[in-house]
Amino acid sequence: MRTLRSTLGHTRAGGASAWLIIALAVLASGCGESSGPSAPASAPASTPSSTPAPPPSDATSQVNAGPTVVSLVTYDGSGQAVHPDIAFTPIGWGDVTTHVVATPYPGGQTRFENPSYYDMLSASAWVAPASGTNPVAMPVAGAYLSDPDMVYDPDTRMLSVYYREVTSDSNRIDLIRSKDGAHWSEKVVVVSVPRHFAISPSVVRRSASDWIMWTVNGGTAGCTATETTVDVRHSTDGVTWGPAETTRVGRNGEYPWHIDVEWIPSRHEYWGVYNAKTRGSCMTDVVRFATSQDGVSWTEYPSPLLRAGAIPAFADVVYRSSLAYDPITNMVTLLYSGAREDNGSYTWEVATEQLDRLALMARITAPSQPTTHSHLPHRAHAPGVRRAPKLTNETAP
Q1: 62: Cβ contacts below 8 Å, ≥ 6 apart
Q2: The whole model's pTM is what?
């Protein structure tokens, strides 16, 4: 899995940034959490470490300071994005050790919602490789893409990106791979089900022969369904997947719409984050945190990680989020996406947050608050500003 370590990311030349874990969120990478120290900053590129290095951070990053919006350059020029996910590679794999995938989504235009890859120089500086071109995947005619998830496989020394391809009647989970982040393989379809039956893939690699994928199942109604479930699949190689096992995630009439899962070896449990929908609605107002011993039965908590309105950029929607845990520093990093309404359309952005694990637990175990959001100042709209329509299966990313 992708894990955060107690050092900053290193460059190929061996330089290291100042130590501080950024507020990012990740999903499961291939390598399993390591309890040992990172390779020293002087490690030569010719002898790469087998352990993924952690992401770099900005000097301005602060623990428990709330989400900070990331400025992102997208191939369409809008700077708007959703569905962020990160993966870590060993020192010597590439120019940096931290990598991000996301999908642009300017004003809800699905034709731009194509997975795009970035090297992370710092919490606020994500750049496409000089030798690469975004997007890294494009849909077939009449389809659109969404929901990328990135995993590093130490056996093949490749980054794998899983993403959803939506056609008029199907959801396909596609896979592309790269040895350098600049050149990507042709896609392989690894899962194909009816439309809305496989949303937001999240993949954990426990070992070379133990891969797990979670997807949200919206049934025939998609996000307007009265409820959703989460399907779990297993694979011995990350390509050929077995049948889906259904598990239920959610609480008190809230159901997952997009999910990210991490295996946390030091705690012997899975951690998951998901943006929650309610019956018949495609709007998601909260991001929830859950834990599991087996990836099937989940423990839920009274209060959310994040509510819509917590920051101006997320005034109306909070969306697909991810997490990572550093057992050495006991810090959790979170990567969020969300949106605000701007004169009839949505502006989508990404933000990061870093929390001490005890602070995270205090937040989610606090008594639940009413869902009126009256305590969140950024939910208010100025008089005369035209509100965008509610999200639907066609407009929700």
Answers
A1: 354
A2: 0.84
